[in-house]
Design brief:
The chain is of the alpha+beta class. The protein has one helix and two strands. Strand 1 and strand 2 form a beta hairpin.
Length: about 55
Amino acid sequence: MRTSNWAYMKYGDSSEALYDMQKDPKQFVNLDKSTQHAKILQSPRQQFQSVWKQ
């Protein structure tokens, strides 16, 4: 899932990736484990789960 600010991925092994598309458009730094980004990660995670269940 992507927005102009964030890219979120969920993989088959249940791992995740979150990238700041403004600061890191080439997606080098995965922020999924960053405590500073925990709240930001909640929204795409919920959206993904909602879409996946449909």
